[in-house]
């Protein structure tokens, strides 16, 4: 929800109470449907047997899902946009991507482009950012030593009654290394995003005809034991040099894709994710939850499959460990 709310705020500004939640819920259902419709197995089937594309959609079991996802897409494409337009007309809109667009001269053709642009930003950013935050929490439960080290770094740099802020970032390299490792450990799009070659090409002696589907296997990159020994272990240190500097900037992470279509939201993620992770670690200890008998509930790193993966639901316990910072955080949340 946090990841989605930030992206909605940037894209559409402050929407009416209740509407933001309903759009987010709708977007979540749509993302789930797309996961069912666009699977790596189906992509392989359509690539191997291209004639399947010519068949009407009712030939496939996903037919009703496609219809429903179309309705949801139309809803998300139009409703938040129309709401912001009405806010602009009655002078209640807060600044956003859409208000910036509406404040400039535009015609219907521009509007037809702007709606999907906003929708794409929102859909591309929401689930990926949510996955990364969930993976961060999962890693903190499973690797308490990493959590303790990250909190110690924050407490050494930031006064104990202050929240960490982006100005502190340069002094907190281990936290940056954690975020790089979260992206490496379980990249949200393990097979990247499919592209097709626009022309015939030759790569490393292999001929690649025009129209070939090309995917970067991020999962293989993440499991390259030459670079990441013991790759299934969560180990932020592998992203740091001996003098505690990040080996590669976060925004160059392979999990953001490559080339012309590399994720344009990566700076946004860098700041929003850093702020969320730093705030969580500064205020809360994340631990295994306990069952009704007081026994620790074990957690395993289990993930959904598909083009976008996320951790299977897991239990964890949050305990406030700094009342002064907790007070700041609550005040910030209540002032919104
Ligand atoms: C940790 C979070 C994120 C990850 C791992 C991620 C990853 C990716 C990847 C792998 C691609 C495809 C790149 C390619 O085609 O090779 C992509 C595209 C894209 N991302 Fe992100 N993304 C994240 C967050 C965001 C956010 C927060 C936004 C918006 C605020 C965003 C907006 C986009 C857009 C608009 C595209 C399509 C770009 C294009 O086709 O030209 N992403 N992202």
Automatic annotation (TrEMBL):
Molecular-function annotations in GO: heme binding; iron ion binding; monooxygenase activity; oxidoreductase activity, acting on paired donors, with incorporation or reduction of molecular oxygen
InterPro entries hit by this protein: Cyt_P450 (IPR001128), Cyt_P450_E_grp-I (IPR002401), Cyt_P450_sf (IPR036396), Cytochrome_P450_fung (IPR050364)
Pathway per the UniProt entry: Secondary metabolite biosynthesis
Residues that bind heme: 263
Superkingdom, taxonomy of origin: Eukaryota
Cofactors demanded by this protein: heme
GO cellular component: membrane
SUPFAM superfamilies linked to this entry: Cytochrome P450
Membrane topology: Single-pass membrane protein
Keywords: Heme, Iron, Membrane, Metal-binding, Monooxygenase, Oxidoreductase, Transmembrane, Transmembrane helix
Keyword hit for Oxidoreductase: yes
Family that this chain belongs to: Belongs to the cytochrome P450 family.
PANTHER family for this protein: CYTOCHROME P450 MONOOXYGENASE ALNH-RELATED, P450, PUTATIVE (EUROFUNG)-RELATED-RELATED
Protein name: Cytochrome P450
Species whose genome carries this gene: Suillus fuscotomentosus
């Amino acid at each position: 929800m946090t990841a989605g709310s930030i992206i909605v705020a940037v894209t559409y500004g402050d929407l009416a109470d209740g509407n933001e939640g309903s759009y987010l819920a709708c977007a979540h259902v749509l993302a789930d449907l797309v996961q069912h419709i666009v699977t790596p197995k189906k992509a392989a089937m359509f690539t191997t047997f291209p004639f399947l594309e010519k068949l009407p959609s009712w030939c496939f079991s996903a037919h009703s899902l496609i219809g429903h996802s179309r309705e949801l897409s139309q809803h998300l494409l139009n409703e938040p946009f129309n709401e912001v337009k009405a806010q602009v007309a009655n002078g209640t809109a807060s600044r956003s991507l859409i208000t910036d667009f509406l404040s400039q001269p535009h015609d219907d053709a521009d509007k037809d482009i702007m709606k999907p642009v906003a929708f794409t930003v929102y859909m591309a950013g929401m689930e990926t950012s949510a996955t990364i935050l969930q993976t961060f929490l999962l890693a903190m439960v499973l690797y308490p030593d990493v959590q303790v080290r990250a909190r110690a770094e924050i407490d050494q740099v930031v006064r104990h009654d202050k929240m960490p802020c982006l100005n502190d970032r340069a002094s907190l390299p281990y936290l940056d290394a954690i975020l790089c490792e979260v992206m490496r450990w379980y990249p949200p799009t393990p097979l990247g995003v499919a592209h097709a070659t626009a022309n015939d090409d030759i790569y490393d002696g292999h001929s690649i005809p025009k129209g070939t589907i090309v995917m970067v296997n991020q999962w293989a990159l993440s499991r390259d034991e030459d670079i990441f020994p013991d790759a299934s272990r969560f180990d932020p240190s592998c992203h740091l040099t001996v003098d505690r500097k990040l080996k590669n900037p976060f925004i160059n992470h392979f999990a953001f894709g490559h080339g012309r279509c590399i994720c344009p939201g990566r700076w946004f993620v860098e700041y929003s994710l850093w702020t969320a992770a730093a705030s969580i670690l500064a205020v809360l200890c994340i631990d295994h939850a306990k069952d009704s008998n007081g026994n620790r509930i074990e957690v395993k790193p289990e993930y959904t499959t598909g083009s976008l993966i996320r951790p299977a639901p897991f239990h964890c316990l949050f305990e406030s460990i700094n009342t002064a910072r907790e007070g700041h955080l609550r005040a910030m949340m209540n002032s919104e």
